[in-house]
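User: Please run a holo structure prediction.
Assistant: Happy to. Please share the sequence and the ligand.
User: Here you go; the ligand is magnesium ion.
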Amino acid sequence: MTVKQTMINISILGSTGSIGINTLRIVRTHPDKFRVLALAAKKSIDDLIAQAREFRPEVVCIYNPESAAKVQKELRSLKIRVVTGDEGLCEVSTLAGVQKVVFALVGAVGLAPIFAALKAKKDLAIANKEPLVIAGKLLVEEAKKTGVKILPIDSEHSGLWQCLEGQRVDMVKKLILTSSGGPFHKKKGSLTRVTPKQALNHPKWKMGAKITIDSATLMNKGLEVIEAANLFGFHPDKIEVLVHPEAVIHAMVEFVDGTHLANLAITDMRLPIQYALTYPARLMNHLPTLDLVALHRFHFERPDRKRFPCLDLGYEASQKGGSLPAVLNAANEVAVEAFLKEEISFLKIPSIIENVMKKHRLISNPGLQDLIQSDLWAREQAKEQL
Ligand code: MG
């Protein structure tokens, strides 16, 4: 018996980045399941135009207004509306008829459109962790009030979500996030002279530049600890990070009786994206599956916290909470950008973040405006230290 599924209407913020491209690959494979109503990109005009021609959305947003004229000219004959800027992003995330919005914008810029989508009662499929780090608590609270679903796409959080589904949270002893260890896990000697090119060479995942550098510093795990604490309502002391170089187990949940549930899958972002889009259903696909026999064995190690201090900075921000995660995130964005431009060394990234965190006067129960202010403050402070 075949069950006829209704179409799922989606919009994608960050459609030309790696998550956006993978989301569209899923849509391309299942044209009978998904329809793209809106796309948004920052500056990759040609890619955005090509995507619009193929998927025929109602609206596209090009974030940089200078590029709007060209996009408009190219898409005029298709009757696709072109919008720009922050307003445009909010329009894409609140468009009538859309059920699920995929958020895959790099950095803090995604905050306003996420809250706009929440208000408009769209389910939120969130790939970029920054909004969940900066304002995760607020988002989860608001989503509970309005009945909106938060569907995590970050692979570890998708794994935790799947392991926690149907379980009692008071029966959970701890959450375990795995890390591949990044490109420098096995590197001997000092990390002072490592270059952006070396740091961008991730052993397991193909991702955007910002998150790949975060993986090299282990800030990615620091951010993920905050993200998991906010999403699932656990104290960071109950969240553990383990290095697992095979990157097959993405997350585990340990229960009070000592039982562990684990999420295993190939390292392909299409899996967590697809699950967020089809939840609670699953969708057959043509992706390769795990060959457990070929894998032979799994390894686990504790992360080296001295060598990669960003992880502990993440824990500290999560423990102290309030406005500190927003500060950590903003300082990190500035420092990573400077490292990519070869303005600072690799080891300067954690020291800049730490200094900015030390200077910050914590706001304990921040509203959205406080968080945005803290973010701006931290950016200024971090820039002064470059
Ligand atoms: Mg992740």
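Residues 154-156, 224 surround magnesium ion (CB under 6 Å).
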